[in-house]
Amino acid sequence: MINTIPDTKKKFNVEDVRKDFPILKRLVNGKPLVYLDNAATSQKPQAVIAALNQYYTFDNANIHRGLYFLSELATDQYETARLKVKEFINALSASEIIFVRGATEAINLVASTLCRAKFFNSGDEVIITHMEHHANIVPWQLITDRKQIKLKVIPINDAGEVDLDAYQSLITEKTKLVSVLHISNTLGTINPVKKIIEIAHSKGIPVLVDGAQSVPHLKVDVQELDADFYVFSGHKVFGPTGVGVLYGKTEFLEMMPPYQGGGSMIRTVTFEKTTFDDLPGKFEAGTPNIAGAIGLGAAIDYMNQFDRNELTDYENTLLIYATEKLLGVEGLKIIGNAKDKASVISFVIDGIHPYDIGTIIDTDGIAIRTGHHCTQPIMDRFKIPATSRASFSFYNTKEEIDKLVMGLIKVKKMFA
Fold first, then answer.
1. Which pLDDT does position 146 carry in this prediction?
2. Nearest 5 degrees, angle CA 71-CA 296-CA 286?
């Protein structure tokens, strides 16, 4: 087994870390970039950029097919990346790691193939939460057209926390699956997924966890959580776009039919019948994003340099600092005040539309997200059209938060 975790961890220092991310040196509108949109996508360290450049410059070849040097080299790098992911989230086997385009495709894959596997019958129920990203709502709605499946929603309180009592009351003999996010991309809420899984498993119900926001911020152990499925995207965890991971327990992945057909995922093909490859190949039809997987492996190597708890603690200091500073802005209200929260802050300012806020502070090089953040049901729940959202990573600083606050004060003066 390839060990990608160094024996000794590198001491975290934010100024040293910032030097690893080339884009943080650039200017926007003549001002130093203040990048606070990490919940949408993270920036990439030089090590990831170098890995992509290495592959395309020197190692480019298709995988799992060729017997020549470059093909075998590319195949080894691709499968090594799978092993790195396996270790990173502590899966039981590398065959439980399926490379996909991202968390969105992973959830669609599970929804579609479970439906085709006759896992669902008409009248069955899928439980989600009120804070889900659209990517964990729409795929389940799509299969309801085929199976008349009922989608049930766990309510959230005014702090943006799930109601566990309501969750338990929603479970019936018709409940076939629970699908919940680990961390809300809008509210920052860290959901008690281990407890959610325990409750579901006590009734024999499998659970899918959307970890798109959690993997960048928390140390994830899928065996400790006992998740049946866990999904995340490479681009949010300092890797390339267009690559992601579906983890699934072997018993489910073997029961599910292929998601797509084509090359590489087969054993034999005749005009009468096709037999399919074992895991994980069964779910990886065609030429995959080879460079993306290699780049994701490089991102994992980069993160493994550090103590994950140290990174989480640092991000928590940013969250506490930013919360205090933002609440000092007159008329500003934070949406989402869960007790257990990641470094994401959504807010509104009285009388000022979020789009105006984002546009104005962009002139000072400050990048935040504005809109509904692909969580329109949350906006409906809090009776707002949109929010401004600042999301932090371990390469952000308190000085950048100060610049955000100064930018918001500038906006306030313009609208006074």
1. 75
2. 45
Per-block average pLDDT, block size 10, for the chain (416 residues)?
Answer: 63 97 98 98 98 98 95 98 98 98 98 94 96 98 86 98 98 98 98 98 98 98 98 98 98 97 92 94 97 98 97 98 98 98 98 98 98 98 98 98 98 94
CATH number given to 14-38+307-415: 3.90.1150.10
Burial class (CB in 10 A: 0-12, 13-18, 19+), 75: middle
Q: Which of 341, 331, 318 shows the shortest CA–CA distance to 131?
A: 341
Packing angle, helices 354-362 and 398-415, rounded to 10: 120
What CATH class has 50-304? alpha beta
Continuous H helices in 233-352: 250-255, 290-304, 308-327
According to DSSP, the β-strands at 366-367 and 34-35 are parallel
**Domain coordinates in residue numbering, the chain:** 14-38+307-415, 50-304
- State whether residue 35 is helix, strand or coil: strand
* Candidate list 374, 384, 405, 406, residue with the active-site label: 374
Stated pTM of the model: 0.96
Per-state percent for the chain, helix, strand, coil, to nearest 5: 40, 20, 40
115 is catalytic: no
